[in-house]
Amino acid sequence: MTETVTVKTEGTTLSALLARHYRKVYAGVIAKTYALNQDLSQSGPYLPVGRVITVMAPAEMQAEVAAARPVVDLFA
Fold first, then answer.
1. Has residue 74 been placed in a domain?
2. What is the full per-residue pLDDT of the chain (76 aa) written as tens digits?
3. How many domains is the chain partitioned into structurally?
4. Is residue 73 part of a domain?
5. Residue 57 belongs to a domain
6. pTM for the model
């Protein structure tokens, strides 16, 4: 399930847009967003105002993070 987000302010980066949208930072969310928006990298580091971006729904993103396997740190 996906939804769309529209860039409303100048100087917005993809990571800032996604952090605002989800109200949390998720690992891998930027890569998933690029996969959903094949031409997104052509925009440069700052997204143009009015650009519509397809993102994963918050509930789907939370479910995917919950299902992720934990990372084992051998050196901690």
1. no
2. 999 999 999 999 999 999 999 998 888 899 999 999 999 999 899 999 999 999 999 888 888 777 777 777 888 6
3. 1
4. no
5. yes
6. 0.80
